[in-house]
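Re: export button greyed out
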Amino acid sequence: MADDVTARPTRTDVAATPRDTARAADRAPRSAARAAGGRPRASVTVEWRKRLEILFFVTPALALFAVFVVTPVLQAVRYSTYKWNGLGPMDDFVGLQNYANALRDQVFTGAVTHNLIIIVLSIVIQLPLGLAIALLLNREIRGRAAMRVIIFVPYVLAEVVAGVVWLMLLQPGGLVDAVFDGLGLSAAKQLWLGNPEIALYTVMVVLTWKYLGLAIILFLAGLQGVPTDLYEAAQLDGASWWQVQRRITIPLLGPTIRTWGFLSMIGSLQLFDMVWILTKGGPANSTMTMATYLINQGTNRSLYGYASAVAVLLFGISLVLAALYQYFVLRRDNQDAPKPRKVQR
Amino acid sequence: MARNRLLSAVAMTAGVALLAAGCSGGGSGNTSDDSADGTTLTWWHNSNNEPGKGYYEKVAADFEAANPGVTVEISALAHEDMLTKLDASFQTGDTPDVYMERGGGELAAHVEAGLVQDLTDGSSEAIEKIGGSVAGWQVDGKTYALPFSLGVVGFWYNKALFEQAGITEPPATMTDLVAVADKLKAAGIEPISVGAGDKWPAAHYWYYLALRHCSEQVLTDAVTLKDFSDPCFVAAGEDLEKLILAEPFNSGFLATPAQTGPTSASGLLATRKVAMELAGHWEPGVMQGLTEDKQGLGADTGWFPFPAVEGGEGDPAAALGGGDAWACSAEAPPECVDFVNYLLSDEVQIGFAEQSMGLPTNPAATGSVADPALAELLTFRDEAPFVQLYFDTAFGENIGGAMNDEIALLFAGQGTPQGIVDATQAAAESE
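Workaround output, generated via the alternate export path:
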């Protein structure tokens, strides 16, 4: 969800790191191994050369990683133990006070709750909807390519642009209200973003609109991987379309769905741009997420030490949830996955 | 094989280049101001449109001509860009020589961090001339910046819509304000727009009510001693609650932004969707930018001061406002003080007023304000017994932010008058 870089929280956004880290770290050695492979000489010196080469190719990536990922994380941890307004020397050490304050602040705990609601709603709404549309679009129907494009457009649109457009649509007297009037449903009109009771769900609708395309494209890609002979066999056995989807397609789509679920969860935890544009966390903090809270406290209130503590908490929560997901959900994908093969010479 | 080696050679070069690039970033912090034969003053301002931009270029050129060897290097930035860049420069310590200070707690934080020059002695003449307006830029009796424009907040209204609703007199008390709002509603007009989505426009209501309920002494003590125990602060919240319950505000005001776009609070007033808005001296300019004909409300623009309250200790003529001041950063050369003194001189301030760039602080320029709406405001400001700096600015970002958040909650029906005082006091005690 927070894949684009438009308005990503600045250096305090340490939580963006685990994914990038994993990616960078496994990309580098693999390409190094590829470059080192294919040499028909086998001796001790080759082993050493290979190691040196690996080291050499990994070093730039590691250096960049250390400077731009590890250092900011460590700095945030350090800042979080000080009371600091961003100006002048950092000399007011407060230990874990900032963390205690954050956990006691109802606005922050409210923000954590909102993030959790968004994770659950994302999965509950987008999974069945995305799956249904992907299955429909995977059939031979007229205008399939056009439909795929239309569904993917919101995801391609810059988050800020989409947010501003929705802000205008949802304003009192905006297009959304006009549509309700046109349908004779004037009574159902709401202050979509101005009512603390429903603002979070309005935001959720916009997020679904924005990110459903990603789920569908991923599921469609996963569907390409389902062997056609399974379908043929099922057809021979006289299985209905519904049985085929239930017994073959969806189980085989499992790894794709679980990966999407992971991306969706991390994105929901780091949700910032759309909320910032639509509501800035308001009204009455009803759409506050951890990321908007952190920016609000840091840049708007100049509580840099406190905001760093919040950033570290966000990082920790993301890490724990990611690890739990890895352990309980993604583990079997990892077990099933083919072991990395040795390079054939 | 040969190709392989070539590839790794290329890759190695690239890797080395990458590492070198990573290391070379730190060397560019060289901002020595002194060139071989003179001094350069860097000046950041936010008059990036004509006529202000051209006027300030002329001012800089005149100063250079009068001070051989001094070069003024101007960066004319959009307001928000300037604030962002300034924030970053305060943190890195790489501040421009001449820059804008908004005073209050923000300035106090800069002073504490040793980022600003003390102008008390170097600018004594200008300080005396400006008079009381300089108070917002003083910390512990020392003056750190010279205000060049000081505006006040009040109600801007649409004269035509008032007439349409049969209102002949602008409201003088809070009771009148509610009555006026009811009349407008009866005529099918939304009375007041407020950009509560941005919080500060909503907070201005509480600030003004506190100004009407509290005596000047109590307010001064609140700013200096961070003491909010006087019951007048709770009374301000109670009056605000009464106003909110009368429902005078535009539909969806909790999510309305202050001044971005036609559906913002200023936009609603400019496009004649509401009858009035509480805003500062910038409002006519903002409204002009939000209508297609660039006229804003044009001849229908009216202004009246914030109403009085029943039984308040505060002076009904006191004003809430704020302004912009020129400051010299700690590292700036001594010529900087001469330059900011020049910026506050009769000559420069008169030109500033003639170009309608703001509300001048030098009394010599008072008669030169060209825009009639601004001239009216200037009269009110100069007749006010005192101008209270916006509380969020006066208290600084932390206390001010806590205060604004809690006031916004009151607008949402989730806060209490006591809650505003408690949250503010708690933030003050955590400082």
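Chain B is about 45% helix and 15% strand. The button fix ships in the next patch.
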